Amino acid sequence: MNVFTSRKLLALSLLLAGSVQADTTFTSPSFLHDSVVGKLQTATVTKSDTLIDVARRYGLGYDQMIKANPSINRWVPAEGAVATLPDRYVLPNTPHNGIVLNLAELRLYYYVPSPTATTVFTFPVSIGRMDWTTPLGKARVLRKEKDPPWRPPASIRREHAAEGEILPPVIRGGDPENPLGHYALYLSLPGYLIHGVDERKAFGIGMRVTHGCVRMYPEHVELLYRMVPVGTTVHIVDQPIKVGWEKDELYLQVITPLEEDGVSAPSPTMEEALALIEREVGGELTLFEDRLEAAVRRGDGIPIVVGRRTPRFVVR
């Protein structure tokens, strides 16, 4: 598809994003036929950079950046190394409206419809770790709050107390110790929020580290807060394998969790990928099995072409 950026929304995103340079906005006249957005780019690692610094600079997630650059040491990359910026995505198989959170790829999508186009914003997020999982299902945004106070649940207070840290019943909004940051969207799932974070924890965005809430970069949550109206639908899904068209080419995106994330679910398989392609695409396809195998084997979340529409010839 021809991907272009909405000037008005891009201006807003650049105003709020500060120095973060990664694209977050993609607009198309229609997502009915094409569902691949963004593009792969590269960045040169400078002196004293970690790979995580590069991810933060370009607004990408931790896991996403690590998996896309397996040959680069995350903590001590060679100066001058060229890092892949994996800013290309197959849209999740969900309705293209409201907020969509795909747990498998640690990424949030927000669709903004209009009479002539649909704009999708996409951001990396942190989600619940294995003992505090973020639930699947459908919800909505109940309310929004700037500088929200944090009232740690009893379970979290007990966890911190076991480690020698006594949490107060309430941490006021705007306090540097408040883990909710400056903006929060409260969901209809009791106890679950989409919220920001201060810069001290921003380098954990794109990891499974929260107590179930959805955590975003400060500039990203501010943008989402300004755009999303109360009542917006939120779809929470788990799709480690996604397929989508760009013109006549079929893309496959496979996301295998990092071993350090401790995810108990098995990694995606060839059989699952083939079943998804058959279910979503059907038979009008020339499939490149070597590329499909490579996508599943790598599991790095970078979409690759695995097939092409089979031309139809009419004999008269």
Entry summary:
By secondary structure, the protein is an alpha+beta fold. It contains seven helices and 19 strands.
Structure write-up:
The protein is α+β, with helices and mostly antiparallel strands. 21% of the residues lie in helices and 27% in strands. It has seven helices and 19 strands. It has helices at residues 7-17, 51-57, 62-68, 154-162, 218-227, 270-280, 289-298; strands at 25-28, 36-38, 41-44, 82-85, 88-90, 98-102, 107-113, 118-124, 127-128, 137-146, 183-187, 193-195, 208-210, 214-215, 233-237, 241-246, 249-254, 286-287, 304-308. The strands form five sheets. It has a nine-stranded mixed β-sheet, with helices on one face. It has a four-stranded antiparallel β-sheet with strand order 16-17-19-18. A two-stranded antiparallel ribbon has the order 2-5. A hairpin with a 4-residue loop joins β7 and β8. It is globular and about 65 Å long. It starts with 6 loop residues before the first helix and ends in an 8-residue tail after the last strand.
